Amino acid sequence: MTSNTPNSGEPFVPTKLIKHFQANHTTRDAQTSGWSALWDSQQNDLWDRGKPSPALIDLIESAPWPSRERRRPKALVPGCGKGYDVVMLALHGFDVYGLEVSPTGVETARAYAAKQLDAPLAHNYGEGNQEKYPKDQRGEVTFMAGDFFKRDWEGKCVREGETFEGFDLIYDYTFLCALLPEMRRDWGRRMGELLGPQPAKLVCLEFPLYKDLKLPGPPWALREGIYYDVLAGGGTGVFDNDEAAQSALQQPNKGPLERVARIRPSRTYPQGEGTDHLGIWQVKSW
């Protein structure tokens, strides 16, 4: 695959994933069918990372995660893929909901979770930390087929006798970058609806930050300013050059969320080494 890195000196060659969407799934309405077709044809290896996010593991293990009274913290992973991060979070004591557009994807994730929850691999933990998270403290895993932008799946996230108060953690890795740029404003709106009150956090592993904004996706190129524009600025998050994206960071915070931290993780996937950042957000203080 030719490099997507700006100024690499190499011509851009669309990947198989990009060609798939350019051929038949260029509109917003066709996005769900586009991803489902790849799952059904067993081409989910086009984006599969093979393990949970090292950056998220390190963040979760760095300090106890705040939870609500009388229950475990509740997490959502939209666009959860095979369920690597869903399972990892459950092993760390969260009740976790993995959302995928494809029923085939959901069944694949359930099969993966059944094996890992019974005998988890070491890649679910930081080095030497597995014994700190005993089996009797693990959370529950629920996988759902649904459209993130609709509300019909939300009822599955409430147990009997419980009132839904939003999620204590939402994790986005390759979900935003998989969406058409025109969908970013709605992504931000939904995050504001689904995230619980403080101290709940939205954690975004910002990727790909290295890709030229003018190149097609998925994955679509992202920048720090794009996240800020959508979540804090209340904007569209659509920019075609780095200068415009950077200028978005100067906007007043009139969006649904506020950023409380942005860090470069010491560990991440090879695809984002040297560029990935973790952005951490919460419902805005008024």
UniProtKB/TrEMBL annotation:
Database matches in InterPro entries: SAM-dependent_MTases_sf, TPMT
Keywords for the protein's UniProt record, in alphabetical order: Methyltransferase, Phosphoprotein, S-adenosyl-L-methionine, Transferase
Keyword Transport in annotation: no
Highest taxon of source: Eukaryota
Pfam families assigned: TPMT
Protein name in UniProt: Thiol methyltransferase
Organism: Podospora pseudocomata
Highest classification ranks of the organism: Eukaryota, Fungi, Dikarya, Ascomycota, Pezizomycotina
